Amino acid sequence: MSMQTEQVKLPPPPGLLASLMAGFDSVANHIAVILPPVLLDLFLWLGPHLRLKDFLQPIIDGLPALAKAFPSGFTDLASVQTVQTAWTTIADQFNLFVILRTFPVGTTSLLSFEMPAKNPYGSPLTMDAGSFLGILGWAILLVLVGWIVGALYYYWVSNVALKLEIHPLWKSLTQTVFLSLIWMGLLFLAGLPALVLLSVLTAISPVLGQVLLFAGAVLLIWLVMPVFFSAHGIFTLQLDAFRAILNSLHMVRFTLPNTGLFLLMFLVLNSGLNFLWNTPSQGSWLLLVGITGHAFISTALLAASFVYYRDINAWLKVVFEQLQRQTTSAKA
């Protein structure tokens, strides 16, 4: 015989501000944990720059001839010159060392997107990566270094934030590599066609290219959100890469309003304060203040995300257990 059961009152989800405060407190009490992002930005600012000019310049010079291969009226001289100017700027300023800031696991960096063209000593020393094979070799080496340093950084921050039991670092590093390869594969499959399309449309209409670039950025954020916490499962629960991705999808699916608000706060604080940190001139030593401030805030936010990940998964476990008991009681 079945009997009516009293509705179970579910506990509230973890507080967002509590997670943020816990992350900031843990970093403030272990301030040395901000050293990896500080050292990376100092290297990108004061160290040598690795250019791609020898490889890109012949391609840039050949753009007018390439444009003539298209039907008449498809491209005009002004559009080709705009593209040439843009790629010449990239060839002159792009620093291949920025890929030391790897994704999704990597050391946070203020200057990896800025690629400063000067420092307090003047213009940075430059060297060229050379041919395509030289660029490929450098890229592989830098990505490997970025993965290793990024895994050490995440391992350090997660232990500072959560006071975890010491577990083998090599397991986290191995799964970090697998996770990064999965992300790289997905980004390559989706990103390469999108990049080619964006380049062609920008040559036709720079305004249309800017609109599509913004739309693509919004779409990328929307797609990344469900797997934002994939790396957290590796360092917090010692999951393998695939299970960590599935756990992130599961967590975000059942906690979307709360988790979406947390990620919005994460993005607004991190991106918004970057405008402040980049206020000093690249040639001024005051940029050290920005580098240090960014390192502290970004590391504290990372620590807060580990705290939130732990707490929200613990909350989900309690909720599912209570719902299971309620369902079992209702059927009795």
Question: Overview of this structure, please?
Answer:
A two-stranded parallel ribbon has the order 1-2. It has helices at residues 16-29, 35-46, 53-61, 63-68, 77-93, 132-162, 169-204, 206-224, 230-236, 241-254, 256-277, 287-331, and strands spanning 49-51, 126-128. The chain is an all-alpha fold.
Cα-to-Cα separation, first versus last residue: 7 Å
Beta-strand share of residues = under 5%
Q: Which regions have little confidence, pLDDT < 50, spanning 5+ residues?
A: 1-6
Question: What's the mean pLDDT score?
Answer: 84
Helix content: 55-70%
Oligomer: single chain
Number of domains: 1
Specify the biggest β-sheet.
Answer: 2 strands, parallel
Structural class: mainly alpha
User: Taking Cα atoms only, what radius of gyration do you get, to the nearest Å?
Assistant: 24 Å
From the spread of the alpha carbons, the general shape counts as globular
Outline the fold blueprint.
Layout: H1 16-29, H2 35-46, E1 49-51, H3 53-61, H4 63-68, H5 77-93, E2 126-128, H6 132-162, H7 169-204, H8 206-224, H9 230-236, H10 241-254, H11 256-277, H12 287-331
Parallel strand pairs: 1-2
Helix pairs in contact: 1-12, 2-12, 3-5, 6-7, 6-12, 7-8, 7-9, 9-10, 11-12
Task: List key phrases describing it.
332 residues; mainly alpha; two-stranded parallel ribbon; 12 helices; 2 strands; 70% helix; 2% strand; globular; disordered N terminus
In brief, what are we looking at here?
This protein has 332 residues and is mostly helical. The chain has helices at residues 16-29, 35-46, 53-61, 63-68, 77-93, 132-162, 169-204, 206-224, 230-236, 241-254, 256-277, 287-331; strands at 49-51, 126-128. The N and C termini lie close together (7 Å).
